[in-house]
Write the structure tokens for this entry.
Amino acid sequence: MRILLDTCTALWLMAEPEKVSSTAQKIFADSDNEVFLSVVSCWEISVKHAKGRLSLPESPATLVRRHREKYGTETLALEEEAALYISRLPRLHSDPFDRRLPPREYPWPENPRP
């Protein structure tokens, strides 16, 4: 299964794992699943931390690195095609970070693992 973590879930896994059910943690840790964290979420975490709107126990870079090591989380880049696709999405809300997370129709990498 391919799983794209949203920013809140990723932050909970990184800094407050008690907020994530044990079932969800097992799913994220299962090596049969591909778990992705978008660079957009990393960008959002960094921006909000730098502005003082997000308190973290350590730097965003350290948290993300540890998270990737623990869960084998893969990077999902923001490709040009996905960035341009955003203009076709309905305006359900105005959060610019959420609008940049890949939609379900996003062309996922065919073979992201070696």
In short: The chain has six helices and three strands.
